[in-house]
Write a structure and sequence with these properties.
With 303 residues, the protein is an all-alpha fold. Helix content is 74%, strand content 0%. The radius of gyration is 21 Å and the shape is globular.
């Protein structure tokens, strides 16, 4: 097995960055696929080696730094727009799945507390998750329950991060997950696809996880001064539309945390939040909800 070092990882991270669309291949060119295969081999080799090593006192230098660079490499390769990833499944090529599998093992090997402490690791971690939920959500839905819950649970934690970029990335990932549920379960066909069945079971089996996310979203809006209200609004709308019961319960929980004399006024704020909002996640409805959420924050916080 080749010896994979940090300098090599950094070089590859620069190589796969499609800055200014410099990596442009013709429609019939295999170069993008060939490049990704080599990237996959590198990540699998490094990940297999790093996961087998014993932990040391300086975890950042010994493991986390290299893992975070791998996250950057894979994120850039996945979002570079020079690979048709459907080709891998079509021809039974495991390059994509193998690189995702080992990367998920690497991120799950890092305690969430450590991810949040080392800010470079956090930046790489949440950027990777946003990319994963945006372009490879079916893979996320295929994960075992424990891995899925840990990853989605980390998104809730990231929502509360003081860094608006990380908070926005988590909201974007949650929005993509809720949108998939809405499109394929709430408004889906009677004969659901395997992925729709998977996401339906994940939501029904883990109600506390998703109600916690919706509550956290509202808490960020109410208690903080987020500069990313548009991103948060998309995630909130998606979560509300996939479960009216969950929204009703969260509303009751939030109201219960305030003195009774404020309940009528605050309940009115919640009622106005959904005014003229339809059962849709199209752009027009998202814009309407965003306007309502902006007014909701102003009126709710003026209690």
């Amino acid at each position: 097995m080749m010896q994979v070092t940090s300098p090599l990882l950094k070089f590859v991270a620069e190589l796969v960055l499609n800055k200014s669309q410099r990596l442009t291949f013709g429609p019939s060119s295999p170069n993008g696929i060939l490049l990704f295969r080599e990237v996959s081999k590198l990540i699998v080799a490094y990940g297999s080696r790093i996961l087998s090593l014993p932990n040391k006192a300086d975890m950042y230098t010994s493991k986390y730094k290299g893992i975070s660079i791998c996250l950057v490499i894979l994120t850039r390769a996945l979002s570079g727009k020079y690979v048709n990833f459907g080709i891998f499944e079509l021809y039974g090529d495991r390059a994509l799945v193998d690189s995702l599998d080992i990367t998920v093992k690497m991120i799950l090997s890092i305690p969430l507390a450590d991810i949040l402490v080392f800010r470079k690791v956090a930046a790489a971690y949440f950027t990777f998750l946003e990319t994963l939920f945006n372009g490879h959500l079916l893979y996320v839905l295929s994960l075992d329950k424990a891995a899925f819950m840990l990853i989605v649970g980390s998104l809730e934690t990231g929502l509360k991060d003081l860094n608006d970029k990380i908070s926005s990335q988590c909201a974007s990932a949650i929005d993509n997950l809720a949108t998939f549920y809405f499109d394929h379960v709430t408004a889906g066909e009677p004969e659901a696809s395997p992925a729709a069945v998977d996401v339906s079971h994940l939501f029904s089996d883990n109600p506390g996880l998703f109600s916690g996310i919706l509550r956290s979203l509202f808490e960020v809006v109410i208690l903080e001064e987020p500069g990313n209200l548009w991103c948060l609004s998309g995630a909130i709308l998606g979560m509300i539309l996939i479960s009216e019961e969950m929204f009703t319960n969260i509303k009751a929980q939030i109201l219960a945390s305030y003195p009774p004399e404020h309940h009528q006024q605050l309940s009115s704020c919640f009622d106005k939040l959904m005014a003229d909002v339809t059962l849709s996640l199209d752009v027009k409805n998202r814009e309407k909800f965003y306007g309502n959420l902006t007014r909701f924050k102003t009126e709710f916080c003026a209690k």
